[in-house]
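TL;DR need structure tokens for one chain.
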Amino acid sequence: MTREAESAKGRPATLWDRTRLLASREILDTALRLFTEQGYDETTIAQIAREAGVSQRTLFRYFGTKEDLLGGGQERFGQVLTGTISGLPADVGVWEALRAGVAAVLALHNSREEALERFRLLHNTASLRAGWLEKRLRFQEELLPLVEARMDAATDGAGGKARAVIGTAFACLDAASVTWVDHDGTGDIMELYDECLAAVRG
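>> reply
TL;DR here they are.
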């Protein structure tokens, strides 16, 4: 059973929980299809609601913004990233911890095809790209204490070094995803991430 299909307390999902999950999944699938067919900016909330068979009011109960419809809420990206890294043993190195966080975030996608379409929209839509960059800066600040804890906090300029490490990891994820989209999803995105990171650290 997926994490989404469980209650907040970890108990098996109720019928209401499962119904809500199916409804949100239908809305997301409809939104992604329309965004792919006609463009993110050209697709309206009213159109998504109509084709998903729900009212706009119902749609906004599931998703707060149009941007959330691209991937169920980018806030979850940050939650999974920080949660994964903070849950790793203290002796896991900083680069390995960040890689585990990136892999956990990528695993949120239901399929390879879904991931490809979302990355394609993100990189080819100026408004989405701008919003992602703004959120990314906040995610990086949230990661800062976790990364500093895995580095030598007593070293002068530890904060700057931690920011550089985090920025490098995000830059490698961007480079890997752009390359993956450019090659129409050929290859493994984590292998591309590793190659980008090796190039920077080499």
